[in-house]
Amino acid sequence: MEPILELRGITKRFPGVLANDHIDLKLYKGEILALLGENGAGKTTLMNILYGLYSQDEGEIFVKGNSINIQSPTDAIHAGIGMVHQHFMLIPVFDVTENVMLGNEYTKPGGFLDKLKAASHVRAISDQYNLNIDPNAIIEDLPIGLQQRVEIIKILFHDAEILIMDEPSAVLTPQEVEELFKIMHSLIDQGKSIIFITHKLGEVMECTDRIMVIRGGKVVGESTPEEANPETLATMMVGRPVELKVEKELSKPGDTVLQVENLTVVNKNKKIEIDDISFDVRAGEILGIAGVQGNGQTELVRCLTGLIKAELGTINILGVNSTNFDPRKITELGVAHIPEDRQKDGLVLPIPVEDNLVLNTYYKEPFAKGIVMQPDVITNNANELIDDFDIRTPNSTVSVSGLSGGNQQKVIVAREFSRPIKLLIASQPTRGLDVGSIEYIHRRIIEKRDEGCAILLVSTELDEVMQLADRIAVMYRGKILAIVDAEIATKEELGLLMAGISTQISGEKRKPRKVREIVT
Amino acid sequence: MENTSKVTKKIFKKVEKAKSRQRIIGIIMFAIGMLIYFVLSRNTSPDLETLFVMTPGGSDVTTPDITFNSLLITNILAILCVLAGIFQYIKGFGKFTNIVLVLVGIMLTISFLTWGASGGSINVGGMLRIMIVRSVPIVLGALSGILCERAGVVNIAIEGMMITGALVGAILGSLFGLWIGALSAIIAGGLIAVIHAILSIKYKVDQIISGTIINIFTIGITSYLVTKILQEREWQYLNESGIFLPFSIPVLSKIPFIGPILFDHKIFVYAMYILVIVLTVALFRTKWGLRLRAVGEHPKAADTLGINVFKIRYVAVILSGMLAGFAGSYFSLGSAGYFNQSMTAGRGFIGLAAMIFGNWTPVGALGSGLLFGFAETLADNLQLLNFPIPSEILLMVPYILTMVVLAGVVGRSRGPAAAGIPYEKESL
Amino acid sequence: MKENKFSKINNFLKIFLEEVSRSSLTYIILAVFTGLVLGGIIAAATTQDIYEAFDESFIGGISASLKFIWKTYSSLFLGSFGNPSKMVSSLFSGDKAAMRTAFKPFLESLVVTTPYLLTGVAIALGFQAGVFNIGGEGQLFMGSIMAGWAGWTFKGLPPIVHVPLALLIGILAGALWGFIPGWLKAKTGSHEVINTIMMNYIAFNLSQYLIVGPFQDPNESFKTRFIEESAHLYRFFEDPLRLNIGILIAIVVAVLAWYVLYKTTWGFEIRIVGLNPKASKYAGVNSSLITILSLTISGAIAGLAGSVEMLGVNFRAVQSLTTGYGFDAIAIALLAKNNPLMVIITAMLFGFMRQGSRVMQINTGIPIDIISILQAFILFFIAAPAIIRTIYRLKEPKQGDLTPQMTGSGEKI
């Protein structure tokens, strides 16, 4: 059978990086092909080439056997290729129809828009695939899951045959993921073909027909869900056997360090982000917060670290009522914070590494005397930390923007861990990092725990939480549904909690859901 | 349970904040009513009458003048404003709030005029007619800004483009006639805009800095050319363009009251009417407008759909410059008949203010342009009336209003999301 | 003891030079040079004699153009620095009057430099904190008129009290004009560019009103009263040399601003707020406060510029449109890459050009406005480094530029 899409020898170089190295790929009509790889493996680069956002340095693209030259998204759209981007490409203030028809507008003579016709087409697509989208809804009023469907309608509106989906499940709840898989299958039932980009092994096993693994810009293996198992895929992805379990001893919890009672946070639009939650973290233990992104974890961390205000409730750190303290006061209590978005929150990219290493202590002795900064002390401090934490940088005065993601994160970890801290609040500490850096940071966190530091770990990667935490709290829509002991928690149980289904009541409330059979 | 009720209380407080905006507006209306009563009515003697002349001077379409008792009218208007304020404070006008606020503003203005002209007369028709004329460069400047910012490029160089248009219009108008003058002013504005486009789109220079460069350059070069060339006697013939003659629109100009105010003007006024309509339709009803707005809101999204972000921005910036150039030619070819360096006098910046005040829509720009034009007209006429307010203070009103609107005290204005941010293709 | 002092000065010079070289000097010099060449071409192209020369022969035209451009810029130089030979001979003759005449251009250039230096530092400080202060002009206007008010209202004060008092009132007026947009930005998120532009026009109208209204000289319309003798800034020389202590004040302010920005924790805070406001919050910096303070201080320094002009040079306010200082200051700050020490040099460049252009206009008939054109060209090349790099085939700079994000904490215009 002739593939509907074929890539031959695609190569793309960025300054200093070989992002794609002679990649070959075949996609057949009516299949879901998983493109599996670590962050930075080159998956997104490859797809951006296919979609015309980058152009390849070498290699050819064939659609239905014909070599085509894709220079821009327009070419890709003409070739029947569509893409659901990781960050949605929707205009918040436009309505669904406007977003969908943009670039392929229905017009009346004279260039006037024919919105009615477009809207009825949108409605038709929505009905055909059971997407349940109102063509007149304004995008910013729609929840994330529905916005993603608008992205899919957009592609179908352009009559695409080949759909590229870049990490589509990252922003969805397990239920929404389930819905998404259903939609994907109804798409291939109607003759579409899908390339599904992901780094989550479970999803690959659940919903794809074929799996292609990419590492360091090269194809390192192909498989099918039937043949493969998670361990072999992980090994292929990373290039060496991966210890899926982190070595650690049982925790020996001490006194309570962080105590949160009835905490409630309300955002600018009067929406309750955190809804009356209570928990505590004790010295020498890791409390993991699991949950799908957007269930209040970000706000919880920001509130605990003083970046946003609590509406109600109290936060007690080391016996001090620190509710609504400003960030500096909280830091001075001995709290370290690894922020969710390191480039936006944790670092000032254009300034030197050494200055970033004192970003929240610059005003203190010995880094400053009065208001006068002490550059020599700051440099010495930096050199010590660069050695201690194995930060790969030419020297301490280059700007931190030049460092790799893993080394940038190490700068933050070095800064936070080098202070005497009693409580560590780590939010997505390994997001977007390579496996080496992930392992390093995990080790450091466990070390801190064993030193007697209380740790609050927030991660949307359930595996990470299960590996590191001693107790696991699951957040759903701003509430903590349950706090369970990590030793006895099962993935299934946590998964249900993440979907908002409490185990105690699960018997009555859970509706039987049709689990999709794996297509062979 | 108790906790939940606390939460609702807190949320209620936030709703109260939105309510407080409504109340502030109510208080403002009430205060205007009180102002009319205590400052104006109290200082009007009961037997004086005000004569509102409704026919602009020189017009042959006459409208009967209106004479009324000054005190009675100011009192009525004061009561209306107070009532509106009370209603707004207690219940709120909802989505009609802005309209009512405008009405209250109009009532305040009428009261001022009534009081100022008590025992005498004032040519209201004439003032409204001048308001239209005065608003032309402001509205055109605002339209220029809208076109540019809707595509995601901030244009603070409207002033510079205007002054270029004014000079080029005057010189080529003197040489080849008024129409060629106006046309070349449009082209000159477009050419200056090309610089802004190249700097801010191609070289990704901060758009404010690019605009500043153009303002410094154009103000410098026009001034230079005037001193070096146009002031020399032998070259003076280059700066004697003369002006377009007004012409009245058949039928429409014969409508009593409205006719002579709206439809007996020079080409620039009619162009303003047409451009407001054309731009409204083009931006909100056409494919081009949809794409342009998309580029101004989320250029990456537009790019992934195969829309050429750079091309759309180039076209928008250049059209914006052409509009500003045309606005500039109004000064030389529509008003003075020659060029001088101070003729634009910051109108480009007032245009920018009108754009914001009109919430980035052409119709809004027309409305705010008329308001700012009226402020200028009133400032001109202050000496005729016996107002205690100096004209300079009145001329500050547009700027203060813009700052108030921008701060969101009275209603919020929201500009295009991507305005001011250069688009980089490879940053996906 | 003496040696110690010397080494301190030496040390300081070292730091100064280092700062100068760090700011990619070559590139700036090329930008200025290219601007001057283009300005020369415009000057030649608008001069009739040149066309006549070209009518005779092409070579003749070229040489006439070159001669003309040389004459233009040499008179610009003479006008700004003075005639070196006259300077030397006057020094040898010991004739005070001759000395005054010989050194007048140079000293007058310093007088013009003073407000440029102060407003340049003001704008640079704003940029460092991530705020774009286009309101320098309005802040200068308010500083000037209010310092003037203090100058003529208080009578019988000794200069030691009167001068600081008047300066302070001018500074406060400028600070208020910076505070309002700063506060609005921090509290409501409305963009400072629009607000400072609006504040400019409010300032113009307000000072117009004051000049023709309450502050008007009873004997002369459209002008204010003169300030009291006791409010005059100290002048170094006799009339007509106007050089006053203002230039020293300006240099002190520039050095102080540099020291605070690069050597203290306050400066660190200002810079990180300018570069990444979100991270600055994370670092425990009160970024709204820094935004408000930076615009307020920026306004205060611009207000000081106006006060110094009033108390040291003008002694009264006259009805006028703009001075152009506020806008030129943007060019000065950007040319100096927002480094206050570099501003000393770039402000001198602009100040000397502005002064020299007067002589140039007399000698060659080239209007003063050529300076604005030159400034626009220079700023053009500074703002778009790629253009200069392409013309002169320069290499990419090694390290990323430290230009702060102009959009501050994510607000849009």
Structural account:
The complex is a heterotrimer of chains A (520), B (428) and C (413). Chain A has 520 residues and is an alpha/beta fold. In chain A, the strands form 6 sheets. Chain A has a 6-stranded mixed beta sheet with strand order 6-9-10-3-11-12, sandwiched between helices. In chain B, the strands form 2 sheets. Chain B has a 3-stranded mixed beta sheet with strand order 2-1-3. In chain B, strands 4-5 form a two-stranded antiparallel sheet. In chain B, α2 packs antiparallel against α3 (97-116), α4 (124-150) crosses α13 (347-357) and α5 packs across α13. The mean pLDDT of chain B is 86. Chain B folds into 2 domains: 2-119, no CATH class; 130-423, Orthogonal Bundle (ABC transporter involved in vitamin B12 uptake, BtuC). Chain C is 75% helix and 2% strand. Chain C contains 17 helices and 2 strands. In chain C, strands 1-2 form a two-stranded antiparallel sheet. The termini of chain C are far apart. Chains in contact: A-B, A-C, B-C. The interface between B and C is large, with 53 and 52 residues.
- Interface with most residues: B-C, 53 and 52 residues
CATH superfamily of the largest domain in chain A: P-loop containing nucleotide triphosphate hydrolases
- Shape by Cα distribution of chain C: globular
Residue share in β-strands of chain C: under 5%
Helical segment count of chain A = 18
Largest beta sheet: strand ordering of chain C: 1-2
> Mind describing the biggest β-sheet of chain C?
2 strands, antiparallel
Helix content of chain A: 25-40%
